[in-house]
């Protein structure tokens, strides 16, 4: 692998389950050291895509390179460079947290210190607790510990903070930022817009198995989607204007208002969530039809 090759390079990926085209011409590039968040409604094809990139699912068509190899044919050495957060180690429920993290560390050539990893995910108090006695959120933190103990170059996180309380989520974000400063490349899926905003260098929105938009969290959707809305009242009637120059609009309004105080004045910028919902608009048509 040469230094300029992206960590992940996907072109025209396709995967069908029976009649369902789950992934339908998806393109994705993730550069080394980048954190990319994949967003999309339920059933958009996010997990299918990640499983193909992890080498756990075969694709029907498309070009896929992950750390310079095709995951479908990559061997043990490749696998040791990739961190995967599995959905929960049920069959190992009798082991303690500490035993399990130590056990997984053995599989890697240059693992992180298991105790440091347990600390980093906030499970120090639970190190001697059996896995089956952990809460759902604690189990998920253990999954994260097992994903990072091998010191992966590339980490896949599929909805990593589902079930976390707000404090645990903040602590997890700090952990991910620490991994980034160690140079780890991270691809994560999430349904939490604020998580994408807090962590991602780039957000990729997937709908119906393909990418419908991508960009830095503050730039997603382009200028039009990012326009501010100025709202005000005149004699009890609300008015609004979409604009890229809200200061100029407010100045104009103030100049035209007796006393200079504009009634009911608001300047609102769309949040990432507003832009996202606009981008996936209509993705839930099926649900609406069933409900109606
Ligand atoms: N093993 C499977 N067999 C048949 N259909 C599947 C299978 N796995 C996923 N699908 C279907 O493929 C589509 C994409 O599913 P996928 O799990 O990739 O979506 P997702 O974006 O990860 O959704 P979520 O946000 O709910 O996790 C869905 O319509 C799903 O029902």
TrEMBL record:
Protein topology in the membrane: Peripheral membrane protein
Family annotation (SMART domains): AAA
Q: Name one GO molecular function term.
A: ATP hydrolysis activity
UniProt KW Cell cycle keyword: no
> Which Gene Ontology cellular component terms are annotated?
plasma membrane
Xref: Pfam families: ABC_tran
One GO biological process term is: response to antibiotic
Subcellular location(s): the record lists: Cell membrane
Asked if the keyword Membrane belongs to this entry, the reply reads yes
- What name does this protein carry? ABC transporter
